[in-house]
Batch of 2 targets.
Target 1
Amino acid sequence: MFRYILQRLFYMLITLFIIATVTFFMMKMLPGSPLSAEDKLSEEQKAIVLEKYGLNDPVPVQYLRYMGGLVKGDLGVSFAFDNTPVTKILMDRMGPSLQLGFQSLLIGSFIGIILGLIAAVFRNGAIDYTSTIIAVLGSSIPNFVFAGILQYVFAVRLEWFPVALWGGFEYSILPTIALMIFPMATAARFIRTEMVDVLNSNFILTARAKGISEVGVVFKHGLRNGLIPLITVIGPMAVSMMTGSMVIEQIFAIPGIGEQFVTSVTLNDYPTIMGTTLLFAFLFVVIILIIDLLYGLIDPRIRVSGGNS
Amino acid sequence: MKLKNWALLLAFGLILSVLAACGGGSSEKPSDNAGKGTEGTATEGENVLNFVNGDTIPSMDPSLATDEYGFQFLGTTMEGLYRLGENAQIQEGIAIDHTVSDDGLTWTFNLREDAKWSNGDPVTANDFVYAWQRAVNPDTGSEYGPYMMNGVIKNATAISTGEAPVEDLGVKADGDYTLVVELENPTAYFESLTTFGTFLPLNQKFVEEQGDKFATSSDTLLANGPFILKDWESTSNSWNLVKNDDYWDADTVQLDKMTYEVVKKPQTGVDLYEAGTVDRAPLSSDLVDQYATHEDYTVEPQTAMYFLKMNETRNEALANTNIRAAISRAFDKEAIVNEILNNGSLVANGILPSDFSRMPEDSPEAGTDFREVNGDLVTYDVDAALEYWNKGLEELGTDAVELELLGDDGESAKVMGEYLSNQLSTTLPGLTVTLKNVPFKQRLDLDSNMDYDLLISGWGPDYLDPYTFLNLFLTDGDNNKMGYSNPKYDELINATTTELATDNAARYENFLEAEKVLFEDAAIAPIYQKAVAQLVSPKVQGVIVNPFGATYEYKWASVGSAE
């Protein structure tokens, strides 16, 4: 097990290295410079300012310089936020996105699993259809539509929640609900389909024959098997939730990382583009690793190290 | 082993349910805090205004700032030699007055002795010397320093290109409270330049102490203006401005505090406005219809001008003056400002905006708006357009012209491009316009490489003088980039900074004449003058809108009655 994790960590480094390289060269193909007043400056003045930031050097030289810094854990200084280290931008902006992503993923998939379970147990009944309709609506209506409706109804009209901005926990409730619709719908659909299958399989019949209570059958034998496909999709979903949603962050005026990422691309803020991309990539590979380890936890048949041989 | 796994799974489930419970449980009480941001107003006797800001403040370093918000908050927290008051009148700042030598090249400013930095140090002439040298020093990496100072302050150009030491800059301290500035050429508008962010003073000791951290947070900033920036870091989405009690003119300042929250979506800003959380919210054109009848609806005219650049070097049709004259008359500007922009923007029939520059005192039309004196130089006129068009086609010996219209992907840029290309192709027979929308940065690239036929472009003034618009079209000017060249135009404009530089009335005569030449040549096709529609609470009183630099001036602002 330990060796396996070490091996995986090594691959993770290679993956990150490749992502950093590809992103760097693709980013350098973006039109324009990071100068914010470039429409006002003469070519000569532009060249002088770019020189100061080392942007007149050939791209491979810039690449080596960046990677050199990266190895030492230096993500550089933002071009858009003057003199602000990229690590500080990431740390400041990651908090709200992580919190929202975490809350909505956990609550969303929890409710989704319950919905899916109920639908599977009472399949083809009214409850099943209701839950299916919720799931289909949830995965087909974009979250910014939900966000707009939630904001209008619960904040502007009813005044139960703050309209927008970022303060205490109450400011996170509406965005969390808007964001959790998708994981909820996804979880509900996966769990229902899988549980219907599982509950019809022979080992469930055996379990029932042994006289295990229905609750025991569903939760102990059924759910454990039904969770596997969900876990496969929950990984990438978790990453996309935690790296923030530009639209939701703009609607609720939340200082998150998703919005920052898009802004940095439009401003050609090279160090911040690299920093955010690498952070997202890092989260992704870490979560994939966690998911792979979770598989083994849930289903011993997929245990990674080949048992305890 | 099996038991352990189950325990883990159970723990996972527990976390889930606890979090779910949190979510449900606390949803009952948040209304207590719903009024965040307005809490200040509750305090008896405190004068507080709450605002939204369209974005973060990327820089509070006067040498590095380039954007609207940087200059806004620099202007509010700091003070240069002078400050702009109502109707862009120059008001006392750190300088009490100044004298100009007969040749117009040496300006001597007398500084007040009671101005202090927020750390208690006095504001001295050396603070200006240091700041201005820093702005043109190539090691600083400033964009606006060379842009604003080159060709204005003596030796700035040579210093910014590394050919002369910074000490050669034409700004010297004569004692602590006299600042002597030597100019490259007589500059009639220098007084207004001194109000601009790039010309603000800096406390050398403090800046050097802070090093790379300078101006990255409230703790690494010094104020010498009406307000102090609090609770700010460069990535902050909210911050406060509080009254600076050590400001030399603190008695004039009535506001105790202003709060700011970054809100990028206009709809969100409006919702916050309706909830009473903020006192001013900008409206995008899609929101105007809904709020145009709102009692707090206001339109704020600004000074940025938008126009079509016509590149004379890539497509031979555009090298023909008649073709350009036809294009500049062939689209309905009224419909653009009313239907597409829908925010109070004005039709533009010249390149100088209205309510920007007034004729100088010793001219016959003293005090009259420049735009009014020169009138409409090019208007929407289908008949005239067709006449020019046919003449142009005849000269070219063709009956079909294909042009590419380049625009960026900004808010209304796409609709604007579609509208323009449609209007042009329907009004002018034989004209095919293909639309190309690219990201803003790419548009700038294509612009500076002159790789376009028609381009939707905009320009905001950097100082209070027609020269800020009219120098754009000098032959081979840095921002011309469309191959326009007319020796007569160059002569008229260049004379305003050389032999006529000290005769303002004559300068303005030249500006009037040059603008006419520009449109006789149909160099550009003006579209509109920008305005901003917003909801402004009656609480917001006495805020001055500046024609350039910091958008708003709060020194004289106050809190009115909410009803």
Target 2
Amino acid sequence: MPSLKDLRNRIASVKATQKITKAMQMVAAAKLRRAQLAAEEARPYAERMDVVMANLATALAGQDGAPPLMVGTGKDDVHLLVACTSERGLCGGFNTSIVRMVRAKARALLADGKQVKILCVGKKGFDQLNREFASLIIDQVDLREVKRIGFSNAQGIGARVLELFDESEFDVCTLFFARFQTVMTQVPTALQLIPAAPSGDDEENAMSGSNAAYEYEPEESEILVDLLPRNVSVQIFRALLENAASEQGARMSAMDSATRNAGEMIDALTMEYNRSRQAQITKELIEIISGAEAL
Amino acid sequence: MAEPFQFELVSPEKLLMSEDVEMVVVPGSEGDFAILKGHAPVMSTLKPGVVEIQINDKEQQRIFVRGGFAEAGPDSLTILAEKAIPMEDLDADILAQEIQNAEEDVNDAKSDEVRAKAQEQLDQLEQLQASL
């Protein structure tokens, strides 16, 4: 049975923890709003990019000499997995769910006899993946110092990926991140980056099909060569923004439940504290009364 | 007085401009061209340069763009730029930084093709600096 002082100390410590989690929840809520806004502002560009890419792809379909970024190297022996995770912990299952997906994919590929390389964006994913796949991780991108994710961050990662591709270090590149659905739910997603998977459904492509009359300056193929590397950066940028919003959402709900749990714990401890205080008073009274009776 | 059409300027980070304008001069990679309402559909890549936007008779806006492409239709023009800075905010420092980046690109280039492209960009930037 813990003494009254022990109980008092525990209550104080849980209260302090609750204050921290509560503050973290509020900070995450504010950051979430900003991250969501950033993700929304980036949407028009990515959407236009998709449409143009689809147009060019249909215009060039069936032609020879399409760039390898589009059609791949013709092999799929070496896979590059780009795992985007957060830099900080205390965000519930956010990192774990992304890492789980990467791990499952890596295992499946290895079982098929393929070669796997992993590029980690964010420290947390690196820490978790390092345990099992230390030999497969080729690099880690640190975004710790970055307060607000800018396009240049994505460009940096994109350039790194393209460099590896040019050196024929891999054949297929897949990007892993958490798609932001609601504050409560983030969906870990795998997106094939290289070769560029045709995005959008057919209906959408058909709608923009009137572009057959477009005049291209310079040639379609040249535009495509210029566009494909840019598309890689745009996709990475989009993933990073989605990830940032997801991370804050996950942290917000994790900290919300932590605050609630702390509240429940405080209630239970206070109850126990009051009971034992009462018991002690009763005990003292009995001692006094029985002492008086014995006289 | 030209008829207005829909113009949008988008960078990866945000939608910079979306309004009805009369004329836009676009720095295409194969030469500048002006877009008015009713232009034939064109898609062109951009060179680093200045987009001149004639909003109406009185108002005009100039925006520096780098990398990207323009997509014009009969009644709309969309410019997707990797970087877009209004001319008022563009100063020698930013341009000098851009030029430095371009120089690094030239030095880092692995193949002649890439180098030629980077060199081209650098030249265009230097031209722009000289004209400021």
